Predict the structure.
Amino acid sequence: MSTDRFEADYLIETPVSPQAAAEAMAGEQSSGTFVKIPGETQELKERSSARVEYLEVIEEVSCPSLSGAAQSPEGPIQRAMVTLSWPVENIGPDLLNLMATVSGNLFELKQFSGLRILDIRLPDAFASAYPGPRFGIEGTRRLSGVGTGPLIGTIVKPSVGFGPDETARLVDTLASAGIDFIKDDELQANGPSCPFDERVDAVMRVINDHANRTGKKVMFAFNITGEIDDMRRRHDLVVAKGGTCVMASLNSVGLAGMIALGRHAELPIHAHRNGWGYLSRHPMLGWSYVAWSKFWRLAGADHMHVNGLSNKFCEDDDSVITSAKSLLTPMFSEKPCISMPVFSSGQSAVQPPETYRRLGTSDLIYAAGGGIMAHPDGPAAGVDSLRQSWDAAISGVEAEDYALTHPHLLEH
Amino acid sequence: MSTDRFEADYLIETPVSPQAAAEAMAGEQSSGTFVKIPGETQELKERSSARVEYLEVIEEVSCPSLSGAAQSPEGPIQRAMVTLSWPVENIGPDLLNLMATVSGNLFELKQFSGLRILDIRLPDAFASAYPGPRFGIEGTRRLSGVGTGPLIGTIVKPSVGFGPDETARLVDTLASAGIDFIKDDELQANGPSCPFDERVDAVMRVINDHANRTGKKVMFAFNITGEIDDMRRRHDLVVAKGGTCVMASLNSVGLAGMIALGRHAELPIHAHRNGWGYLSRHPMLGWSYVAWSKFWRLAGADHMHVNGLSNKFCEDDDSVITSAKSLLTPMFSEKPCISMPVFSSGQSAVQPPETYRRLGTSDLIYAAGGGIMAHPDGPAAGVDSLRQSWDAAISGVEAEDYALTHPHLLEH
């Protein structure tokens, strides 16, 4: 990896020559425009231009994936893998302007009937410029007291409608049930019927009580999503009350907000990806999770949602595993920026064996909403069933055999 | 419009019953989840649930637009218009959590082979809670001294590669050419070779010189895209140097960043939408501009990009005009939040008559990059040709006749 250039990989689909299309990408996102400009000297181009580093045509398709591309009389619609590189000198090690540079207008160019950003690679200057996850897996295990295996987690449900006291009562039930981790739903941050400060106060009283009695402090991710100054203040309140995690919705807060939070935070940041579907659902448009998550990892996301196997959404299992593995792959040798993957969405005692088999680690948060609260024998049985399923997965015992001596597992 | 509920309109495509699909949307984004939860009482549901306010099936399609939806044996794939409403009480008048609520997980639900958010409607509590555009059309006209007609604008080109002095020399040329408005390219904010502070210093010296001589101060939108505290500081520097506009890339900065800037700004905010393609390009996924722009208008965007007619991108003219008209349509009766539309992308003297005919107003910024700098007779002729084309459009004279007495027009 060059120390003075950053790179991005794309999957493109184009009715024109892939080489010409890739050069148009490079021009649009650096010193070119649609006509020759005075002042765009050869020297300036050499210094500032993006370069096509790699181009491989991978297939032809008969129909364009997206409408609006230029008609071309010249031949087939082709898909190709393209890598572009830019001089760091164009923007400096600046995540916000990196976003405008690697993404920007590309998705709208007439040359393309499909364009998806697959990955980015950044030189070490970016690692030095941003906080990255300050807690990650190790810090999360330390604060939650869960030394091995996944953190078994859940989400406050109903998603919205509970006041502070009802939320605290639910937390009491879940703490008694042996839960490791609880998060606010992303629909609840500071609603008038469930004000943030009162919720923190009520919930932390319960969590601290349990911790005093049992020595185990449940990690609760309080949803601080809001304006920057409010997020900083809410984070500080959680610290003051002895809380151990804050949560933010990435697509609500945005990158400047997350960087501000990342620089400020003294607790793990639980990053929620709600809205991810509009960025990713069409396979020939938008963002791969691998590329997109790198912005947030560098900004400071300690936990990142990756959906779950056999989830209630559209995403297939391969995609979920690819996302989770990417979070566990270092971004820089000196500063790996590993975020802890959060599995959720329709998760129950069914998915752990396959999740463990495919991921190869239990360094993750495993969150089940209905899977715990709606367990026929109650939340404690729900938590037990998840933990037993994970224990079975990790110890390599088939879940069916394991259930003979662990009855809660059988019921799911 | 109810004072205690907000609404969102969607275009959905589903292989299941549209009524059931709409109810799943309402459940997912309020008090429901995929199983019945203890605590989700009838009283809580009545207080907190989203409601399906409207549903109209509009057509059947033979193929799903997006893969991943549930297979249904029961019948056709149907498209429908759906309106949901939520109690403001769920989130309060909070734009960030509104984003999580009206968008959130909807785009990923298995019930949908297509889902696009078309519009949102907010009660007055939101108007009171946010700054909205502080300058808009009137303030922009006052600061730029352009009382009638469009602001004729351009973009610093090459997009990246110029240092502060070269940028200032270009601004000198453009100011001499009679330009009203110039913006930094979105690829240049604070690059090491073109540091923000030095650029502001060099550019404002030129602009202030021209203003002292001619009485006309060119409005320059300095790209302050960056971290929150940097944006505030850069904004203050522009104010101190006598500048009249700042610019931010919305999809880089994000909503928390823009709200912080909106609350802080004493200058018009020029809002750049680069990245818009990944949010919008598939017609059955993501965001309509009408819905999306309302978040930024309320946050304080004074100018918003809408592309241009016969542009270099994929967007068709109808979509461009719909976007621009929506910005000129009040959001609230007491606080209209009108943002000035910015037309750009491959614009020249060709498009003004049709733009004016379809939009019905010249309350806009008309930005041409190559269309000015690459004019065969130089930038002054480029500016003249645009202004003459607009004058012709506004005065109802056919451009061809007008050109007989205005020679620069003929050359485009």
In short: Chain B has a mean pLDDT of 94. The CA atoms of residues 175 and 248 of chain B lie 23 Å apart. Chain B touches chain A through 97 residues (CB under 8 Å).
